[in-house]
Structures are given as C-alpha cells and as structure tokens.
Amino acid sequence: MTSNRSARPPSPAVPTATYRLQLQPAFPFAAAERAVPHLAGLGVSHLHLSPVLEAVPGSLHGYDVTDHRSVRAELGGEAGLRALAATARAHGLGLVVDLVPNHMAASPRHNHALREVLRHGPDSPYGRWFDIEWDAGDGRVLLPVLPARLPEVRDRLRVEDGVLRLDEQEFPLREGTEGLPLDALLDAQWYRLGWWRLARTELDYRRFFTVSDLIGVRVEDPEVFAGSHAKILELVADGVIEGLRIDHPDGLADPQGYLERLAAATGGRCWTVVEKILTGDETLPDDWPVAGTTGYDALRLVDGVLTDAAGAEELASLYREFTGRSADRGGDWEATARRAAYEVVRHDLAAETAALTRAAVRLCAADPALRDHAPWALRTAIEELLVRVPVYRPYRTGAERVLTAEAARGARAAFAVPEEAAAVDTVRGLLLGTLGDSPAHRGLRARFAQTSSALRAKSTEDTAFYRYAPLLSANEVGGDPGRPAVAVAEFHAACARLARDWPATGTVLTTHDTKRSADVRAAIAVLAQCPEVWAGLLSETASVPAPDPHLAWTAWQTAFGFGAPDPERIGPAVLKAVREEGLRTSWTEQDPAYERAVADFVAAGPGRVPLRAASEAAFALEPHVRAQADGAALVQLTMPGVPELYQNTEREYRALVDPDNRAPFAPGPDDGRTALVRAALRLRRERPEVFGPGSTYEPLTAGGPAAAHCLAFARSGEVVTAVTRLSLRLAEAGGWRDTELVLPDGRWADVLDGVREFTGGAASELKLAELFADRPVALLARIPD
Q1: 74/56 Cα distance (integer angstroms)
Q2: Distance separating alpha carbons of residues 568 and 607, to the nearest angstrom
Q3: d(CA 524, CA 573)
C-alpha cells in the first residue's frame, strides 16, 4: 500500500532525541535548568517537559490544567520557563512541551473558566468551553463532589465571602442568591451538588475516561481553541517551545480538525507528536498533520521482537494451570478483554452510554423512518457496537472499517427478538452517516468515538491487563498480551514503514504512564525463554501463602522484574493491580479484609524475599536480563523515529507505575547503560541525516545455525545496529558457533569501544562470536574513505 507521507516536506525542527522530565513543585523549572548540562552531555537535542500550564496546586503531573492563560506558578511561572529555555538553548537544546487539549480540572475553586460557567450558566462567556449536557436533567450540571449523600453533609455547607464552602471545596454562587436559605440557595444554582457515586450513572458532562475530576473541553470550537491555546502559541512564536506532545487526542470531538487548526496556528514551526495508541495493524491516519505518535507502537515492536514466542505460550499454559482461571476471568486473553469491555461499558461508563442513548433517541424521534425504537434497545445496540470496536476509536473517515457488518451481526445476536435487533442497524447507520449528516448526527458520531476510546483504555489497559498475566512484560499500553512476541520479519517491515511514512515519529521504552519501566519488563521477558525456571521459582515461594493464585503469580513476577525486595514500592504496585483487576476489590468498592491479606502477603513474600538473588537459577539469568535490556535500549535509540529517554533511563532504571514513574528527577552515577546511550545519541546528533527524515532502513540477515538470534539493521548504509535476541536460548543451543553477518561494503568502527574495526562486503563475513565477544550488542559506524 502506498502512502502520501513521502510527498510532505519534513518539519524544520525535528529533534534527534528527546529527554522527558516530570515537572512538579519538588522539581520546578529551576531544577530542570540545573540539570541541563548533564542532559546536554548525553547527546539529546530537546528536553521534553510535562505540562507547564497552571494546574491544581500540588499536582505531581500537571494534567489537571486550571488556567490556559498562564504558566504554572509553582514551577516558576513564565519567567522560569523562559529562563530554562534560554539555558537549554545555550547548551544546544530546545524544548518540547506536553499539551493537554482534552480536559481541565473540574475544580471550581481553581478552574476560573469552570467557575464562571457555574456562576453564570450556559450564557457565561465560557459557556461554550465545556462538554456539558444542560438539557439532560433539570437544566443544572451535576457536580459529584460530596463525600456522602447531601443530607449527610448538609450541616457542613456554609456561605462565606460570597461563595459556598464544603471543607476545602468552594463553589460560586449565582448572582442574587447569597441571602437565600440554604435549601433554596442550593436549588437556585446552575449546578447540583451530588454524592460522588452519582457520577457513574448521572454525570452530564464529558470527562477524561472515568475521572470525574477532569472535565472535557470543546477545543473543536474556534473560540475555545483560541482561548485555550493563546499562551502556548505565544511561547511557540517566541521560540521558547519548539515541539508539542499532544495528550490523548482520541478524547477530542475531531482529532484531525484539531491537529489541522494547531498546525496552522503554529505555522509549521513545531515538531508535533500525538499520544495515539495503535492497535494490531492499525496505522496513524495519513492525513494527520503531525510527525507521528509518542511511540507506544515502537515500544510494542521492540519488546515483542525480543520476546520468545514459544516460551510465552508455555507460560500461558502454566499460568492457566497454576491459577485455575476460567477463560473469561483471566484464562484466555480475548475472552477476558471482551468480558472487561462489557463490565466497563455497562458500569463505569453508564453515564456515557446514557448520553449516547439520549442523543440516538432524539435523532430517531425526529426522523419518521426511524421512530419507535425503544430507548433500551438503542442503548443495548450502542453498548454492543462499542465493545466490538477493534481499535481505540473510529475517525472521520474509515469508520466502516471499524463498525463492520460483522460487528453488527454480533451486536444483533444480543437481542432475543429479531425485530428489536433492528436497533443495531439504525445505530450503525447513524454512526456511519448513512442516515443523516446534520450537526446532531455528527455530534452523536463524535461522542460515540470519544466513548469508544475511553472504553478501550479502561477495559483493556486498566482492567484486562490486570486479569490476564502470563507474561507481565506484554501488558503495556499498546501491547497485546495474547500475542506478546513479534516476528523478526514483522519488526523489519514495521520499521521500513516508519522510515518511509513517519521518519520523525516518536519512540519510547519507558514513559510516565508505563506500568513497568523497560528494565523491569526486560527481566520479566527473559522468563519466556525459561518457563521451567519460572515454575521452579513459583514452587520455592509456596511457603508464603497468597490470598489467591493469580495474585501470587502477579506479585512474584512483579518482584522478579523489580529485582530487589522493597515493600514500599512493590506493595503499592500490587495493591493497584488487585484494585484495577476489580474482581475481589476495586478503587470504589474496596474490600478491606482482602486488601489486608494482600498487604500481609506482600510483606511476608514479594516485598521481603530477594527472589532473584536467593535462587541460583534466577541469579544465573542476570546476564540474559542485561542482554535483553541493553538490546532493547540500543534498538530503540537507532530504529526509525525520534527516540525519547525517560528521566533516569540513561542508566538502569527499575520503576513500578505511580508514584515511581513520576518521582522527581535526580541524576545518578553513570553505569554500563550510560556509555551505550551516550554513544548512540552522540551518533544521532552528529549525523542526523543517517537517522532522520530522508534516511533509510535496511534489514541485515545473519547466516548460520544461530541466525535467528541476531537482530541487525543498517541506517542509510552508514550505521549498523546488531543485538542478541533470546540470549538464554542461544546459550542453551551452543552459542553462535559459525553464525556470520555480512556488513555493507566498507570499513566499520565499533562505536561502543572505539577500538575495533571490521570490514564489510560479501567476501568479508563477520563471525558473530567475534562481534559479540565483549557485549551482547554492537553499534558500528562506517569509516569515511
């Protein structure tokens, strides 16, 4: 299939590599400024900053934006950001900033725009900013902020200084209502205070996933776009910001329209990537005016090509035997994911499906040909179609490839009466545009797509990933736990497509959102090469009883990946896992007794026992863990795209989800990884034409008995990357023996040691035993004639 991407001119400011820093009050702009010399010395070209606009005080992440008009004061304000940019520029670095267009904090105390809407209602100057369905109920917006039902907290409400207060919360008052009795005052507002549990079914504003504390913003409205982007665009125009990471574009009503408006507003001065999760063989839409994704698709490729497929299948069998789980409760990936999707769409996203149903009912009532569908039937059709969307969301074009006839047949099967199943065809026609294309029709399509992305994220990443756990290294955003391995040929084909179509896309291995850092995943992935060792390790831990076998598997595998007993970090990760799993306890319906049993188990076992050091078999895996981790690092740094280092990952970095991944940056001592990172990044910065837009990617194939254990490729005929695949399997098979690799013509220098040289060409076959004599990876650069 051809692509029109090659016809587009490259961005004028494509980074050679970025370094992600998590800003927070404990690590503000000034701290980042002090780190600039160290980061410039690594060889990156740009610093990638987490969100910089005003956020909820104390926020550790900044995605809860409260005011688009100003740079966050807790980080040092605009003066601090400009000073950081100046220092970075003096060291040859630019800034890339995380931009959050989809949502803001739903905190009227801190969000000035929301406060004005709640004070003045839909006619407020900010009335168009938020996705509020004013006509869903009594004309007021529900604020699900109360810790209990209103009668139970009524006595704690008070009016002071012209605002309504509940403990630390503040709510504006509609003009002229300050002197009313409390009950009358509450009824007179443009909002209705409600118990937080009402959000699940009664919410009437769009939110981020299922997080009611984050309210959706209507950036599809030109006025809202202008108001919410003025400060960022000013910083771009002034050269302070040279690149943008767009957070969660799938949440927007029209991602393509937004990106087109953003590209026009920046005048093409920004390297822009989108946090888009691609599923299966899905590709980024060709006509999006961006450089590519933030890189989760690359993470899947790199991890997958270094995972043993046969061993992963053995682990899955062992997992089913060990846990005794039924197919839909963790024993089979597809069944588990489908069950989780049904649970989330019917429970967690009940308010969202109710909003879609109301919209469908209105459209059907307005069209004589569509009348008399029961609302319950329309809702069932919506739910059944949502769970069958195979990707995160359908887009403006190509929806028919997502909402397929096969999906419709499956949805109709959920109805006992065939005549009622006709609701599926009606809903599908409304979504595909064959039954109308009015603003109301387009609104339904947009909201369905937004809900689809929320469903996929919550049911897959945040539920099914925790219920199906044979190999936890595969349970990462963009990953496929049912198919954790990627064939070498598939990897090469994907990289060739990136080089051709998206040469400036982002690539990552660790982010602020990864459930496990790359080093933790590398250790776990090695288990696929030795399922029998993992079975032995599990038998060694039987003396520490767990509340259930799935928990034992998950917790011990987490501890193995982490590498050292640390209850302060393993404990919260395991607790998060059982709550996200949602079978015995959850974030909203907690089982204290079960959670105590989990905590006691972690303290006695995974948080105390040094599994890898205590077991001779596990200790013997350490060289293979290092080979796995270093191989992944080098491949990511040299494959097509712009590599990003997450803070601290220039060295070995073991982290387990929040708060590990968002801890303040603290430069540490160099280790063996650092030299590899510096060498690769220096090469990228010195020779951008070899890696950037216009560069090429050529697979290299080894020959001999161990050829399958070498992953190698050339970039633009000038740089060669070669890494060892499945080093434990290689050792068990007798090593490299006579396996050889033919380098491209010319003389080649070993970039990692600066000493060795090799000769390429068909007549000069290179023994891999020689190439990998000192380390399991190699980075070679052509020596100029």
Answers
A1: 10
A2: 8
A3: 15
Q: Give how far the C-alpha of residue 521 lies from the chain's centroid of Cα atoms, to the nearest Å.
A: 16
Cα 536 to Cα 543: distance, rounded to the nearest angstrom: 13
One-letter amino acid of 250: D
The pLDDT value recorded for residue 330 is: 83
679 by DSSP, 3-state: which? Answer: helix
* SS3 state of residue 666: coil
The pair of three-digit structure tokens given for residue 645, joined into one six-digit string: 């280092």
Alpha-carbon distance of 289 to 257, in angstroms, equals 10
- R_g of the chain, CA atoms, integer Å: 27
Q: Which two tokens stand for residue 701?
A: 């194939």
Position 636 scores a pLDDT of 98
pLDDT at 12: 52
So what's the pLDDT on residue 6?
A: 43
Q: Model pTM greater than 0.70? A: yes
Question: What's the confidence (pLDDT) of residue 657?
Answer: 85
Residue holding tokens 């209105």? 362
Sign of CA dihedral 24, 27, 30, 33: negative
CA distance 768 to 760: 13
- Start-to-end CA distance of the chain, whole Å, equals 38
Query: CB of 139 within 8 A of CB of 85?
Result: no
Residue 181 DSSP symbol: -
Neighbours of 334 (CB within 10 A): 12
DSSP E strand stretches across 564-663: 642-646
Q: Which residue positions in the chain have pLDDT lower than 70?
A: 1-12
- Which phi and psi (to 5°) does residue 171 adopt? -135, 135
Q: Which residue has the tokens 């430069």?
A: 667
Question: Could you count the other beta carbons within 10 Å of the beta carbon of residue 669?
Answer: 6
Provide the pLDDT for residue 188: 98
Beta strands in 619-669 (DSSP E): 642-646
Residues in CB range of 517: below 8 A, 6 or more apart? 510, 646, 649, 653, 654, 655, 656, 660, 661
Please tell me the total number of residues recorded for the chain in this structure: 785
What pLDDT sits at residue 662? 80
* Letter string b/e over residues 481-519, b meaning 16 or more CB atoms within 10 A of that residue's CB: bbebbbebeebbebbbbbbebbbbbbbbbbbbbbbbbbb
